[in-house]
Specification:
Elements (H helix, E strand, L loop, with lengths): L20 H5 L8 E2 L2 E2 L1 E2 L10 H14 L9 H21 L7 E4 L2 H16 L5 E5 L8 H10 L2 E5 L9 H7 L4 E7 L11 H10 L3 E5 L11 H4 L3 E5 L10 E5 L1 H6 L10 E4 L4 E3 L13 H17 L1 H19 L5 E4 L8 E6 L4 H9 L3 E2 L1 E3 L4 H6 L5 E5 L6 H18 L1
Helix pairs in contact: 2-10, 3-10, 4-5, 11-14, 12-14
The protein binds pyridoxal-5'-phosphate (PLP).
Pyridoxal-5'-phosphate binds next to helix 4.
């Protein structure tokens, strides 16, 4: 394989020392826009994060100058594309510290990754009466695929509880574990509440009874260094678009021996060794699970997004986001009639809340008039809304580019909501 001619953009490492958020914001063209004549205040990164210019450039460059289908081309462009796509896989491997790039399966996103595990691992290895443990805080995409499988195979789904602050109740979880439990599928950070779960302990306890663990890492990877070997995860999934990469691409990490034992998910090109009408043999990992032409530009763009985040440094990002979160938590308490939903002992940069006077939808609409983007609704986590006995919340979520000024505008918006509804 020839090496690629075009270098992928590199983020200057000088920023490692000095986290200059104003300078970092310049990397995100969307943030300099006006919405209804007001500066954009983007506080919805948990739904999807904005993209830095380096990611946009990498995608544009690939389509403009290097585009061709990958993996079987003998000619120059195909080889350059293949190399870049496979380089991105290696970046992902290093990013989460997998043992081998074969353990990194490119998928459409976390949703597809979880469905893949349910429909391959679950179908082959789980049988009637086996139990799967989920938490009360799961995103619908870590609930519904297991329900489909449960109904097909007569499995038992067990829900591990939380307390009224949104803490994962580890003691209760341990009591649910038994020889019947074959799989635990749990989020590392709740997208609805911001709760950080004790994932390392959850996995250790599951392994003691012989259960495998799938970790939903969607909300964790943008905020903290993830090490799948240190946490000892069997499967780990996340979407590229929440970590400043493109939509339509994400990752399933699986232990090599598990992935090897699983049947293929979809059939098609790229996932085969040889095909006759009598018999088809499957390709090796990771290609066995990657049927069809992949999202080549997406994979390459995601690799560049990881470079970008690594260039800033997780220590710096986490410190900055914690500072903004603390500031937001302090300031939101000034606003009359605000109820925080979920105040777990360990929380990431997500604040879910309701207001006495206004429905979440109205809060979102009023803030929008001032260019402030927050999410309102059930956040694809209806079971946790039921637990708090509410249909929906308003939710602020932070990215690496948010500032105290964003929070000030948001707080002004909440005061305005109170003025309108009082
Ligand atoms: C966003 C999210 C998902 C689903 O991700 P998609 O990109 O929609 O596939 C799953 N779990 C959590 C915790 C999420 O935040």
């Amino acid at each position: 394989m020839t090496s690629p001619i075009v270098e992928t953009p590199i983020v200057e490492t000088s920023r490692l020392i000095n986290y200059n958020v104003e300078e970092i914001r310049q990397d995100f063209p969307v943030l300099s826009q006006q919405i209804y004549g007001k500066p954009l205040t983007f506080l919805d990164s948990a739904a999807s994060a904005q993209k830095p210019q380096v990611v946009l450039d990498a995608i544009q460059h690939y389509y403009a100058r290097e585009y061709a289908n990958i993996h079987r081309g003998v000619y120059y462009l195909s080889q350059v594309g293949t190399q870049k796509y496979e380089d991105a896989r290696v970046k992902l491997q290093k990013f989460i510290n997998a043992r081998s790039p074969k353990e990194i399966i490119f998928v459409r996103g976390a949703t597809e990754a979880i469905n893949l595990v349910a429909q391959t691992y679950g179908r082959k290895f789980l049988k009637a009466g086996d139990e799967i443990i989920l938490s009360r805080m799961e995103h619908h995409s870590n609930i519904v695929p297991w329900q489909i499988l449960r109904d097909e195979k007569d499995l038992v789904l067990t829900v591990s509880p939380i307390d009224d602050k949104g803490n994962f109740l580890f003691g209760d979880y341990e009591k649910l574990l038994s020889e019947r439990v074959k799989l635990v599928a749990i989020t590392q950070i709740s997208n609805a509440l911001g709760t950080i779960t004790p994932i390392r302990d959850i996995i250790t306890a599951a392994h003691k009874v012989g259960a495998k663990v799938l970790v939903d890492g969607c909300q964790a990877v943008p905020h903290m260094r993830v090490d799948v070997q240190a946490m000892d995860a069997d499967f780990y999934v996340f979407s590229g678009h929440k970590i400043y990469g493109p939509t339509g691409v994400g990752i399933l990490y699986g232990r090599e021996e598990l992935l090897n034992a699983m049947p293929p998910y979809q059939g098609g090109g790229d996932m085969i060794n040889s095909v006759t009408f009598a018999k088809t043999t499957y390709n090796d990992l990771p290609h066995k699970f990657e049927a069809g032409t992949p999202h080549i530009a997406g994979g390459i763009g995601l690799g560049v997004a990881l470079d970008y985040v690594d260039g800033l440094g997780f220590d710096n990002i986490a410190r900055h986001e914690q500072q903004i979160l603390d500031y937001a938590l302090n300031r939101i308490c000034e606003v009359k009639g605000v109820n925080l939903i979920g105040r777990a002992d360990h929380m990431a940069g997500i604040i879910s809340f309701t207001m006495d006077l206004a429905h979440p939808h109205d809060i979102g609409t009023i803030l929008d008039q001032d260019g402030i983007a927050i999410r309102t609704g059930h956040h694809c986590a209806q079971p946790v809304m039921d637990f708090f006995d509410i249909p929906s919340t308003a939710r602020l979520s932070l990215g690496l580019y948010n500032t105290e000024q964003d929070i000030d505008r948001f707080i002004d918006g909440l005061h305005k909501v109170n003025r309108i509804f009082s």
